[in-house]
Amino acid sequence: MSQPQLLTIDFMGIGSDENGSPQLDCLQQLLRRRSMQSCLGKIKPQMLQQVLSHGCFSDSENFHREGQIGVCEGIKTLDLFPQHPLGFQSNVKQDKTQSALLDAQIEISEAVPSSPQLTILNDYPRQSVSKLEESTHGRKQSHAVETLNANLPIAKRLSLQRFLQKRKDRIGRVIPYGTSSKEGR
Amino acid sequence: MARVRSNGLSDEALQCVMAHLDEPLDRRAVSLVCKKWYEVDALTRKHVTVAFCYSISAADLTRRFKCLESLTVKGKPRAAMYNLLPPDWGGYAKPWIEHISFTCICLKALHLRRMILTDHDLGTFVRGRGHMLQSLKLEKCSGFSTRGLQDVARGCRSLKVFMLEESTIEEESGEWLHELALNNSSLEVLNFYMTGLEKINISDLELIVTNCPSLNSLKVSECDLLDLKNVLKKATALEEFGGGCFGNGQEHDVFQSIVFPPKLTSLLGLNFMAEAELPAILPRASALKKLDLQYTFLSTENHCQLVGLCPNLEVLEARNVIGDKGLEAVANNCKKLKRLRVERGADEPTLEDEQGWISHKGISSVAQGCPLLEYIAVYVSDMCNSTLETVGKCCKNLKDFRLVLLDKEEQITDLPLDNGVKALLQGCEKLNRFAFYVRPGGLTDVGLSYIGKYSTNIRWMLLGFAGETDLGLHEFSRGCPKLERLEIRGCFFSEAALASAVLSLKSLKYIWVQGYNATVTGANLLAMARPYWNIEFSPGLQLSRDLFSEDMEGEESQGQAAQILAYYSLAGRRTDHPQSVIPLAPSVFNWHQVAVF
């Protein structure tokens, strides 16, 4: 099996010569942009959304690059958008993401097979999503439903909370050892 | 009939006509007619309310509306009022203040709600607009101190309205009030109600009421009412008074010496007023149009006695201690009532108000007895379908209906409430705000579909534990043609279903959800990614109940459930979010950048 190769889809033109070589003439820049547009136009938005939907985040400072552990050892990061590197928040999603990217590879390679700017996974060994991870996810969902009601008491307005606390303090000062049982309704 | 063409109407004439259009919806409609009308609307628009501060930048707003005289900006989601957001969630006023202070040359009124602003921000605004500022409202804001208020008092001498209600203010001194008393003679409204400010010099208040003969509304923090006797005596133009408190340990008959101003029609707050202090307000009862008893210590019988003497009441707010009996008294005596709010009381068993609950009986009474009702917001302990049907039949003027079914009682008379909700929505055609917060089983998928089908004019909605499955949400989202803002709490819907519903609700501009069938990453929410649509995900602490500390109070854990906030924005993704908030979109798939290619 050939080693997986990582290429880069330079959507933002980061790797383009226009950043390093101001001499690149306008026509060439325009042609480069046109070819990128053409490439973009042939990728189904739903496919990209699917890639993103499998646990990838943008360059938010909040996400964690924990995607090192996975089936494909040759890939450190998935630089689909080098300006906005993707990462993973959980290992659960990585297999799904890489599987989706493989599907994207097929589509993109059919769209623009010879573009030197395309970065995609090649010859990535297909691995099915771990059944263990799926069942863990399912257990988490039912558990979330069970705890939903328990963890969401009806919220009180802050102003009312403050008043009721003051009322409690006042009653405590007047009757420090508790009130008698209330009358029935 | 010959069609009138806009080019047959001069610009001046068009401006004159448009100047009389105040309703935002009317303004929105005329601005869409043609480019000329868009431009004239932009020139003549005097007031704008930005319902969510991240939906547009200050620069974009003022580029379109160059002659704004009044601006309202709302920051944090409503959930912040219920302590469901972290304090550093966002809603910073600084970008707005920095821009409008020196750009909006016509600005005379600013209203900020649920925003964070510093003393420095206040100083900047005063330097830019202080010379002609007439109204400054900082409602439920935080981040500033009395030093910032001093700047306002010194620099805004034409202020007619100064409102700080429910803001969290760091109190250094009472000097700000003294500066206000010395520098201002045009105040009409002064409100520092529920701010907790304690260093209030009563002589400053007396000076204000003396120097400001037009003062018609005064709402103070918890100043002792006995100390305010002279203030109330001198404020002869006062129509509304709020706040103050009845001190602990005072002889009750001393409060009978308090004489409220002759024109007084609104009494609010009156913190800790008990039965013995009622005689202080009884002489004014028959003239009262607005009464807030939420923070009193009155019993059910006291409520009955008081409302029985208020035939002109138009607005009533109380806790559920008012009871069904009190609501019957309201129904019998307050025929002009337009707004009714009944809040919940204490939860602790030893502190519960006597007879402190209201049920379908009380609501039925009020619905039948008060036909002018436009606003009902109630926390009930019991409900049934026939009561909701009665509301639908009798309250034809209702524009805002909010019902919360408390969770203390195990047995409810009549659940689910599907048919009642249907009848209410069908009957109250003017309804544009609707909140229905029940419990699991309180509203089925069928009931949720009714809400979607019959919410023809509703623009804002809050649903709590409504529906059962994703199918219910799907049916709901096929309706609600005018729904612009949706809040959901405690539901069983999946992220995919929520995303699909968002895409189906054609008028939706804003959605907030807490407590749903969340995934760890919120990734499925990206199914609703689209141009100008921001998606923010807060994972919260999705732990099992066992993992919570045993002595963790219910309220502390409320902010721990996952939250979604999604909204249309012309300003792009915000950058001032805390670590607990993860912006999911716009992100990699930046539609704007793709378009620029």
Write up what this structure looks like.
The complex is a heterodimer of chains A (185) and B (597). By secondary structure, chain A is mostly helical. In chain A, 48% of the residues lie in helices and 2% in strands. Chain A has helices spanning 17-20, 26-42, 45-53, 91-111, 131-151, 158-174, and strands at residues 56-57, 87-88. In chain A, strands 1-2 form a two-stranded antiparallel ribbon. In chain A, helix 3 runs antiparallel to helix 4. In chain A, 22% of the residues are buried. Mean pLDDT of chain A is 48; it is low at 1-24, 35-45, 54-146 and 180-185. Chain B is an alpha/beta fold and 597 residues long. Chain B has 20 helices and 23 strands. In chain B, helix 13 links the parallel strand 14 and strand 15 (375-380). In chain B, helix 1 crosses helix 3, helix 12 packs parallel to helix 13 and helix 16 (445-454) packs parallel to helix 17 (470-477). The two termini of chain B are 49 Å apart. Chains A and B meet through helix 2, helix 3, strand 1, helix 5 and helix 6 of A and helix 19 and strand 23 of B.
Order of helices and strands of chain A: HHHEEHHH
Radius of gyration of chain B: 25 Å
Average pLDDT of chain A works out at 48
First CA to last CA of chain B: what distance? Answer: 49 Å
The percent range for strand residues of chain A is: under 5%
Largest sheet of chain B: 21 strands, mixed
Using DSSP, what is the number of strands of chain B? Answer: 23
Radius of gyration of chain A: 27 Å
Question: Tell me about the biggest sheet of chain A?
Answer: 2 strands, antiparallel
Shape of chain A: elongated
Put simply, the count of helices of chain B is: 20
How are the strands of the largest sheet of chain A arranged?
A: 1-2
Helix content of chain A: 40-55%
Strand content of chain B: 15-25%
